[in-house]
Amino acid sequence: MEFNLTVEKNKENVAIMFNDIATTYDFLNHFLSGNTDKLWRKKAVKMLSACSPKTILDVATGTGDLAIAMLKLHPEKIVGIDIAGEMLDIARKKIARLGKQQIVKLKQADAENIPFPDASFNAVTVAFGIRNFEHLNKGIAEIYRVLSPKGMFLILEFSRPKNIFFGFLFKCYFRYILPFLGRFFSKNKIAYKYLYRSVQQFPNVNEMKNNLSSQGFVNVSAKTLSMGITTIYTALK
What we know:
Layout: H1 11-20, H2 22-32, H3 36-48, E1 55-59, H4 65-69, E2 77-82, H5 85-98, E3 104-108, E4 121-127, H6 136-146, E5 147-158, H7 164-186, H8 191-201, H9 205-214, E6 218-225, E7 230-236
Helix pairs in contact: 2-7, 7-8
């Protein structure tokens, strides 16, 4: 079954798409961003260190890059969930090579129906996955539920640059060059066109901050990186 760009985004389509590109996902992430994605994750981990979390849930963990980066915080437990089983298979191999299976646990699960009790985690993170939620505020509400009081929610996600000239260049790269390179290496005709569309449809920074506040989060802030290509949102329960 193939992901159909013309069909309204839903969990099944997103899982199919990411399973299909799983084997080239890490290579393309690093190649297409010029390895800047690693710096973005490093910055996210540094910001998360402010709350010294002992238990962390990484939602839409994918191939586990952020979960692995968060090992630097020396947590007692990191749990990564994702709806794409083949992405998780790659994450498991990476974690096994590091010998960190006792700290990082992975589970196939849906961000809108998180299979953990209330207040289970000191911190929850989502890196480049929240724009794929079928129902954004439902997913945010679930994250709020499993987060412990005063716990931190951190989001790392693409955003749209405000600078007109740079924004134009960014849009051209995302709309034309990135899909061509992504299709060439991954052999998937749809996935990197979907990336452009999903970024364009995702709420802008102020709208996203309002979404977080509307679900009960406080101290909501946003820090843009790389001239607005990405944004790190933080919020407390």
